[in-house]
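Methods — Computational structure assignment.
A single polypeptide chain was analysed. Its primary sequence is given first, followed by the predicted tertiary structure written as structure tokens.
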Amino acid sequence: HAINRNNIKRKFNMFKTMITPRIGDTDALRHINNNALPIWFETARNPVFKIFNPTLELTYKKWNLIMVHCDFNYLKQIYFGYVVVIRTYVTKIGKTSLTLTHEAWQNGKLRANGTCTMVYFDFIKQSSVVIAEDIREKLKEHYITKEDLENSNKKEMKENKNNKESVDYIESDL
């Protein structure tokens, strides 16, 4: 059941989650501590969880995803006082697993990214399960190749670089 990219719409239909950084997410230098990003990315997975488990019931009988890998790349500092948009894409759909790519954008700049691989899992039988076709179709709506995502990001960041309203950080306490 590997994905055939020719059968997928080219519209990038990512999930977006708006995060308002809390003071508790910051460190002494007023940028976001590296511990906040995993929590924000997990929050951004909620729409994907609902595809697999619409009730979000956290029981061994109902819950059906298990995370087997995650990684994070801290590209630029993220600051308190500015909204962060977490974009979540499906970048791989396997027979029993999927990979999500998360991005943290702030003020028109890509600040961090990472991936998360989850397995469709039966906790009672303790085994992976083949992803059902109806779930697979919903996932395809949010699928993008890594190459297309990189190209789209390069274009967006170039456009944002020319936008004077794309601020990085205002040092207000000097």
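Note: Confidence is low (pLDDT under 50) at residues 1-10.
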